[in-house]
Amino acid sequence: MSDSSASDTPRWRRDFPIDHGDDELVSRRDLVKYVVLTSAALVAGQGWVLFESMRRRRRGPHAALPVAAIDELPVGGAKTFTYPPGSTPRLLVRTGRRSFVAYDQLCTHLQCPVVPAVAQGKLHCPCHNGWFDLATGAPLAGPPRRPLPRVALEVRDGKVFATGVESNTGSSGKEAT
Ligand code: FES
After folding, report:
1. 33 C-alpha to center of ligand 1: Å?
2. Is the CB–ligand 1 distance for residue 73 below 6 Å?
3. For residues 87 and 96, is the Cβ–Cβ distance under 8 A?
4. Is 112 touching ligand 1 by the criterion CB < 6 Å?
5. For 43-100, what is each residue's pLDDT tens digit?
6. pLDDT tens digit string along 108-155?
7. Is the distance from CB of 134 to CB of 95 less than 8 angstroms?
């Protein structure tokens, strides 16, 4: 009996089994389902963010990594490196006999690589003529408004070690000596 009634039902009726009078009820049900699913997705997202931040905190600071031998660069010389490995490029500049600074090489305006202008005590971004203070990474002129992230350095055993990446306020210079 039920087989024959199912086959008697027109195709459109099988595709759209909700009567007009039940339409509002279904919409409400759909709304509740939507709210529950959205809330579950938000809770899952928050949980993931929390998990990631705990995982990063547990991983702790990056291990020190030798990025250059002291004699590898003349005073005023520079080289790029990545720290931690696989990161965006960093720029190491030798500013004195035993002093070095290192920053993220990508300009904080639109990510062009900055180049050292050591004689002027600055870093230059040629893309839009942006300038940064070589001693602090602070923006000096042009479009950049944020300082370059600074790489903490240590000089020991004839080598320059990267020991961390600092979020830079650009307020105080810190040279590794
Ligand atoms: S990308 Fe550096 S000034 Fe625009």
Report:
1. 47
2. no
3. no
4. yes
5. 999 988 888 766 655 555 678 999 999 999 999 999 999 999 888 999 999 999 889 9
6. 999 999 999 999 999 999 999 999 999 999 999 999 999 999 999 999
7. yes
